[in-house]
Every structure is written in C-alpha cells, then in structure tokens.
Amino acid sequence: MSFILGKKIGMTQIFQEDGTVTPVTLVEAGPVTVTQVRVKDKDGYEAVQVGYGNDKKLNKPKGGHLKDLKPLKVLRETKVLNDKKRGDEIDVSAFGIGDKVKVSGFSKARGFQGVVKRHGFHGMPASHGHHHVLRHGGSIGQRFPQHTLKGMRMAGRMGGKRITTRGLKILNIDKENNLLAIKGAIPGRRGTLLEITKI
Question: Could you count the other beta carbons within 10 Å of the beta carbon of residue 21?
Fold first, then answer.
C-alpha cells in the first residue's frame, strides 16, 4: 500500500486507443517527506507522518519538529505502513498505471442553500393557488409528536465537508512533473489538498 498528498489541478480528458474519451482529474502529487514514524511501544499505535508543500514561516513547535528537515506546510498521518524512515521521500513512482486508489478531500463549500439545491427537492407546483413558495420544503411534521424529527431535510450550510471517493483508477503518471491522471471526478475545487491511498 502507498500514501501520498497532492493538490488538485483540474479536469481534462484522455483519448484511449479505441477512440473513447475518458474524463480524468489531474493531481500534482508529492513529493512528500516522512517526518515521523510512530511505533506502538512509544506512541501506543503504529503510523507514518508525512509532510507536503513549502512553508515560508514556521512557528516554533513545528520548527522544532522539523529541525533537520525542509520547512513543510502540511503534516498528515496515515496507518499505511512501509519501511520508510524519517527524512525519506515518497513520490508518484510509488504508484502504477492501473492502480485503484481512494482519494479524500474537502468538497466545494456552497454556503447556505435551500432544499432544492441542497437535497434535490422538486419544489411546489407553479399553479393551483401556489405563490411565493415555489422552492419551499413543505411540511416538516404533523400534530403528533409535536416536535420536528431528527434528520429532517431543511435548508442550511452545504458542502465544505470531508469526502472520500473509493475505487478510482490511475490512467497515467508523469514522473517528471509529479502528476497523476485519475479517472473521474475528485472532491474539491482547484488547489484542494488531497490524500491519495492505494487500495
């Protein structure tokens, strides 16, 4: 198993040999640096911490943690274990064309939205006496039990949540530019930090 951090660049398409067009998402993945290896005797669990990006100004605790390494912007832990040591680098060569991966990232934040956009409600009929309520949600309960039930779909904050998409396939790898071409859509906007794990 392999793990890497990356940044979403955007979507494009790849033409296969038989002429079919496949939509892909381009991800600038790594290189990441191993910053800490957690062991069960000392930390109570096993994990590997990696760092990604370049931080211009480190605070003192982070600077002490990375004192013999380059200044890294983002630190993430993973339970994906390998034989790496502190200071080792992981790049896209850890993955292969055809590998299945799961990708985690934060979805696009859309602010406060109504039930039509947020939950896909159909809205009210446009005639038969309806006015000013075309995009309303309708009834939210009944006389009994005299309170609104938990989980009632209503208007509210939409997006900006951590999403994991599983079973995505790597179609192309550009090792010189640290690029992965992953089939299909990936959560987030351009520049979103992504966690990519081989499954």
Answer: 9
41/73 same-domain check: yes
Q: In angstroms, rounded to a whole number, what is the distance separating the alpha carbons of residues 92 and 177?
A: 9
Distance between alpha carbon 62 and the CA centroid of its chain, in Å?
24
Q: What does 144-167 look like in DSSP terms, one character per residue? A: TTSSPPTT---SEEE--SEEEEEE
Residue ranges, the chain, pLDDT below 50: none
Cα distance between residue 86 and residue 83, in whole Å:
10
User: Whole-model pTM?
Assistant: 0.87
Structural domain harbouring 77: 32-90
What is the C-alpha to C-alpha distance for residues 126 and 132, in angstroms, rounded to an integer? 10
